[in-house]
Amino acid sequence: MSEHLSIAVAGGTGTVGAHVARIAHDRGHEVRILARSTGADLRAGTGIDLAGIDVVIDASGAFAVSAGRSIEWFEAVTRNLLAAEHAAGVGHHIALSIVGAARAPYGYYAGKAAQERAVAAGSVPWTVLRAAQFFEFASANAIRLGPLTLMPSMRSQPVAAASVAARLVEIAEGGPIGDAPDLAGPREERMADLVRRIGAARGGSARVIEFPMPGGFGRAIRDGSILPGPDAQLDATTFDEWLASGAHSEA
């Protein structure tokens, strides 16, 4: 067990952030949530109290689809966090990004790629963890049209959000390492198949149709650009185990 740390979790009420807060607390660390519900506006840079904080884990996400708005949001949030960290003497900034963001800089991924660049250029010692898509997000990416559910064709090696959170806490305990190895699940999956299996587990009967998304992003998610590299760390939790745990009911 590492020494006791004071960890601030930006986006600490989100899919990964809530797991980070729980795991860090269970491991004996002091946890401070940075979210609108606790008075912190990451985009505006207000209410970011980092007094006494050792490590900031940024697991926040933007409600933006376009590249321009995603870049603007992540650059602003990163700039505000790093400024507050520098002023408070925080020794480690950890950013959660997406596997392949720099290779597929379109839409939301463009913002994550910009975030990575901003963190690396900052004055606070840093680590960037790039994780594959979460099991929890399979259904969120589906498009529902009456009795049909449309899912973009995607090559992915998804991972459980709780596993990503556990890795973020491990990194916090170990200190800055720059670019961390990618984190992904144990096997490549078709996201349309995951949507079908989640739907069946929930008792649904919608027909899921896989389709090729047009444009550069569509090509990137089909051609393997967002798959982990050979040096990636692969989590042991399978989709079937995640599904059996009942986590799909919360996703």
List keywords for this structure.
251 residues; alpha/beta; Rossmann fold; 6-stranded parallel beta sheet; 3-stranded mixed beta sheet; 7 helices; 13 strands; 34% helix; globular; NAD(P)H-binding protein; NAD(P)-bd_dom; ComplexI_NDUFA9_subunit; NAD(P)-bd_dom_sf
Structure explained in plain terms:
The protein is an alpha/beta fold and 251 residues long. The chain has a single domain, classed as Rossmann fold (3-Layer(aba) Sandwich). Helices cover 34% and strands 20% of the residues. The chain has 7 helices and 13 strands. It has a 6-stranded parallel sheet, sandwiched between helices. A 3-stranded mixed sheet has the order 6-7-12, with helices on one face. A two-stranded antiparallel ribbon has the order 8-11. The model has no long low-confidence stretch (mean pLDDT 93).
CATH names the topology as Rossmann fold
List low-pLDDT spans: none
* Global mean pLDDT: 93
Spatial sequence of strands, sheet with the most strands = 2-1-3-4-5-9
Q: How large is the radius of gyration?
A: 18 Å
| Tally of DSSP helical segments | 7
Shape: globular
- State the end-to-end CA separation: 31 Å
Helix content: 25-40%
* Helix-strand pattern: EHEEHEHEEEEHEEEHEHEH
CATH superfamily: NAD(P)-binding Rossmann-like Domain
Biggest sheet layout: 6 strands, parallel
| Annotated CATH architecture | 3-Layer(aba) Sandwich
Content of β-strand: 15-25%
Question: Structural class from helices and strands?
Answer: alpha/beta
**Total number of beta strands:** 13
Number of domain units: 1
Tell me the name of the CATH class: Alpha Beta
